[in-house]
Design goal:
Layout (H helix, E strand, L loop, with lengths): L3 E4 L10 H7 L1 E4 L1 E4 L3 H8 L7 E6 L2 E4 L3 H12 L5 E4 L10 E4 L2 E4 L4 E3 L6 H9 L3 E3 L7 E2 L10 E5 L2 E4 L9 H17 L22 H4 L6 H7 L5 H15 L8 H9 L13 E3 L5 H15 L5 E2 L2 E6 L6 E6 L5 E6 L2 E4 L3 H7 L10 H4 L2 E13 L13 E4 L7 E3 L12 E8 L6 H10 L2 H8 L1 H7 L7 E15 L8 H8 L4 E3 L10 H15 L8
Length: about 550
């Protein structure tokens, strides 16, 4: 068991009895801090030297990275009968969809839910159907989902003015003029879900590549979301807080820097439905989206009949040769070794700030990092293993998603929520999310690298202390903090017209690109889309966005 530090209450052992002492003791856990990918990423950045390769492999296709994009590419290839490929895992299986496990409890180290996919996200629906998560009607407007993975009620609540209330957008206890603005915004978003541009496409679609290119709508990308709100006469402080929260939650940055097009896309592109769930339902698991990564791994292994398609190691160099791309990989171990993979086609399924380090010159593909690189937001994902639950006020039940109004962080999710409808589990995991958007991305990364475990713990617990006070520490037994210094691309103004990203999206040669970075922001549907598009190009199938 991990060490703990102890804080005493007002009573001391000299003046209180033993029972009083144990009642007053508050336990604060020592943070176990993880920095996945940081060592390998910094070595690439700093131009580290690598050992000479001692082994070589040969495959038709090498997929570099086992995040959602890389796994989706491999899943699609295997599903279509193309088996001559290898996936070089990278520093962390599943990437931003990774999970942890402790004392029999799963918890997310990154993304924790998936909105119901719309009809446009047919690639995700095909995947969910393959895994039995959509039980029937994958092509219908309202598919039937596995009941066990639909987030159960109560789904979300907001701590405001010392009380919990349902939902995240305040509607009660605000001036009527503000509530009218809230209703107006929601009605506008509802209209946008079916709005089409002059080219006949939906204005806001997910995947983003299927969205309308109508210049009149794309002009929204030239201003920030906050500027758009002010231009449209939205002045409600609660509405501004809520929309800023949504941008921080999905994009890792405040609404005063996020593109207005992206801010509206957050709402208007989400139009999935279910035959057996209400509007706005989401799919979730205790370990978050790691379940989907594991299902892809299982499906690929089952199709190929072996697990050797997934290779340990991290790609550190891709070279052009007459036979195709030659990939050099660093194998893990106390004494690192290197090996090569000779391929005909290679898929760079890692973030672009990594891809630019392993390719001879990414500018040859039309992408200049000095001009086209997206801003990437740093995140902390903090998992508190709980013995029991902090006390809740009468009539204010613990929800799956719990958010603090005006809080520095993004609230916390209860990993065992799916089990609560049976009986409260004796132990749980509270997962707290923090986008560190109050600092510039670079300043936040510098703080994360220099902060002590105690400082990281205090930041991780900020919303939980706001909700429960120091009594929270009576139940928190262990704490694991995952620091992701470049967690997600942020869609700043102008990202829709990023010529470098547009060029990489069209690349179709010995080297291909597949990552959510190609969309300019990071969600499961976008990462999976580019993985499936890369697989389609390998299979000779035209991508659907053409």
């Amino acid at each position: 068991m991990r060490r703990r530090s102890f804080l005493l209450g007002a009573a001391t052992a000299a003046t209180a009895g033993a029972a009083g002492y144990w009642r007053s003791r508050i336990v604060e856990t020592t943070a176990d801090v993880r920095y996945p990918g940081m060592q390998a990423g910094h070595a690439l950045r700093d131009g580290a030297s690598w050992p000479q390769p001692t082994a070589s492999l040969r495959h038709g296709v090498a997929i570099l990275g086992a995040g959602v994009a890389g796994l989706s590419c491999a899943w699609k290839l295997a599903r279509e009968g193309h088996t001559d490929f290898i996936v070089v895992q990278g520093p962390e299986f599943a990437g931003n969809a990774a999970a942890g496990r402790r004392d029999g409890l799963d918890y997310p180290l990154g993304a924790h839910y998936l909105p119901l996919p719309s009809l446009a996200s047919s690639h995700v629906r095909e995947m969910l159907s393959d895994f039995g998560i959509i039980e029937r009607g994958a092509g219908d407007v309202r598919p039937y989902y596995d009941e066990a993975v639909l987030a159960h009620s109560p789904q979300e609540r907001l701590l405001r003015g010392g009380r919990w209330e349902d939902g995240l957008l305040p509607m009660a206890g605000v001036p009527e003029a503000d509530a009218a603005q809230h209703r107006r915004f929601l009605a506008w978003v509802e209209r946008l879900r079916t709005e089409t541009g002059s080219d006949g496409r939906k204005v806001f679609s997910i995947p983003l590549a299927l969205s309308s290119r109508d210049p009149a709508w794309r002009a929204l990308d030239a201003i920030t979301f906050k500027q758009w709100l002010e231009r449209e006469g939205y002045s409600s402080p609660a509405l501004h807080w809520y929309l800023d929260y949504c941008c921080r939650d999905d994009y890792g940055a405040r609404y005063d820097v996020v593109s207005a097009w992206a801010g509206l896309h957050y709402f208007a592109s989400r139009d999935g439905h279910a035959a057996n769930a209400g509007e706005g339902a989401v799919l979730t698991w205790p370990g978050g989206l790691s379940v989907l990564a594991d299902r892809m791994r299982e499906a690929i292994t089952r199709k190929l009949g072996h697990a050797q398609w997934l290779a340990a190691g991290t790609a550190v160099r891709v070279q052009d040769t007459p036979s195709g791309p030659l990939v050099t990989c660093l194998a893990p171990g106390p004494a690192p070794t290197a090996y090569t993979v000779q391929t005909r086609r290679t898929v760079c399924a890692m973030p672009l700030f990594v891809a630019q380090r392993i390719l001879p010159d990414i500018r040859a593909y039309g992408y200049d990092p000095a001009v086209h690189a997206s801003s990437h937001a740093p995140w902390m994902v903090s998992n508190f293993l709980m013995d029991g639950y902090p006390a809740e006020a009468p009539g204010e039940p613990l929800s799956w998603d719990n958010v603090v109004y005006g809080g520095r962080a993004l609230g916390y999710v209860v990993s065992t929520h799916q089990l609560l409808r049976v009986a409260p589990s004796p132990r749980s995991v509270f997962t707290a999310y923090h986008a560190l958007s109050a600092r510039t991305p670079q300043a936040a990364r510098e703080w994360l690298a220099a902060a002590s475990p105690e400082a990281l713990r205090a930041e991780a617990a900020t919303d939980l202390i706001a909700a429960y006070g120091k009594e929270f520490w009576r139940h928190a037994r262990t704490l694991e903090i995952t620091v992701r210094g470049h967690a997600m691309a942020t869609p700043l103004c102008g990202y829709l017209s990023n010529a470098g990203l547009a060029a990489l999206r069209e690349v179709d040669g010995p080297v291909l690109f597949a990552h959510a970075d190609l969309s300019g922001y990071s969600v499961f549907e976008e990462a999976a889309w580019w993985g499936v598009v890369a697989a389609g190009r390998i299979l000779g199938q035209a991508p659907a966005q053409a």
